[in-house]
Specification:
The complex is a heterodimer.
Chain A: H1 3-34, H2 40-43, H3 46-56, H4 61-85, H5 92-130, H6 133-139, H7 144-182, H8 187-197, H9 200-226, H10 231-261
Chain B: E1 3-4, E2 11-20, E3 23-33, E4 38-42, H1 49-56, E5 64-69, E6 72-73, H2 79-86, E7 89-92, H3 104-115, H4 120-133, H5 149-161, E8 167-171, H6 179-196, E9 199-203, H7 207-213, E10 216-221, E11 224-230, H8 240-247
Parallel strand pairs in B: 1-3, 4-9, 4-10, 7-8, 8-9
Antiparallel strand pairs in B: 2-3, 2-5, 5-6, 10-11
Amino acid sequence: MFGEPIASVGAGARRVAQEVGGILVMTGQVLRALVPTKPFRDWIDTRELWKNLYKMGNKSVPIIVLTAFFAGGLMTLQTGPFVKKLGATSLAGWGAGYAVLREIGPILIGLMFSGRVGSNNTAELATMTVTEQLDGLRALAIDPVRFLIVPRVLAMIIMLVALTVIGDLVALLGASIVGRYMLQIDWPTMYYSFVDNLKPYDFLHGVYKSFAFGGAIAVASCYFGVTVRGGAVGVGRAVNASVVASAVSIMLLDFFITYLSA
Amino acid sequence: MSVGITAAPAIRVANVAKHYGHRTVLDDISLELAPGKRLGLIGPAAAGKSVLLKLICGLEQPTSGDISLLGTSVIGKRESELGEVRKRVGMLFQNYALFDFLTVAGNVSFPLEQRGGLESSIIAERVATRLRAVGLAGSEDKLTGELSGGMKKRVGIARATVADAELVIYDEPTAGLDPVTTQKIYDLLAADQQRTGATVLAVSSDVAALAQFVDEIAFLYRGTILYRGPAATIADAPDPLVRQFVRGELEGPLDEPGTYRPGSAAEGQRGVEDVR
């Protein structure tokens, strides 16, 4: 009676364990490839690295700016009426800034980055896999991990950190503009609310998170890309799995980083 | 079963089996190819030809058995350990495996650039020469997505041969090409082989054209090498199954899947043993 559901749960758990194991193996391969054993030019394919930095970073700026601006503005909108009611407008900037720098900024930007860059990366690698381009590289004595994966992982980590820093600044600007024009909180009040109450660690806390999120998105998106099976349908499944795994990783990492640094 | 040539083989496949789950794709295959020789591999669709080529290149690992490539075992090796031997091998994939992030010229120059040691002017000259040879002069700056299937195949051939590899493996080198281009390509491959002395292993469904290019042909059937013999006389092979396949006859043992087994009581040993 219970045999089938138990078997189904067992099979699901085994699949998850296989995927987690595969992601850990790929993480190990990337870390091993990052050990500097050669001059930088031979160690990392700089042409691929620059190409990916541009593609993943520059082209993500508009969507990140838009997201961060409204995230910052929303925080002010949510907290503004209460701080005004309590006469504590000097805390309006702190409320918005604290939430944005430590939580909302890294998470929202991480999720946007996963949706835009991670899914694109998975689709690209998966297409290369099903069209045997990875085998083509291997046949030419080129290690796909070193040539394709490592530059992408580095580019995603670097660019997510950079985008989070940009996003933080834009979010604070958004919070100030919304505070000034929608809640009539003047500029100096917001400015001193940020400067007096926010600590450098609040900003760094978000940066640490974005570093971890970038690594998780990068490895998950590369893993599901290179392990795809089954042509176009498989590519779709791989992208789906990559976005889900990245989102789950972001939430888990966020919880543990916050818990460990509390 | 052991079929082949002796003495310092460029390719040595010993008792290799490959299973995917419960499905057996290759079953106890042994094969040797001497340096400088040209061997064609034919067989029905899904006989395991492309899998065998990938195993030989170390792109997949066999379930059991041993494979040596230019004197180096490819079994249980890491990617980095296979690098040196792979640099001595050129491979054309059935589905081209062209890099879509590079132009036509970029694809052909890629093996030379990655190996290093050549000036960019020399690389450019060799790429131009190779593209002229396969009839693609003027297409250097096109992206692979802009090419037809036949053009992609020719870019793949140019990439596989540009580095003058010691061993060249072609998986369907003329599939999708018209008869005239097919003949031109085989003439080109033959001229290349004579110039470099490379060992060649080629899979093709165009048996007539292949037979003019290679010295010998092996017939792969249901995961086993059923026959190997001179290419010139393949149409008159003693095995009725090979004859039927090569001549493209509708009637014969190929028409009755499940009834013919090499070495079975019904057919005796004529499939393999007679040609040894």
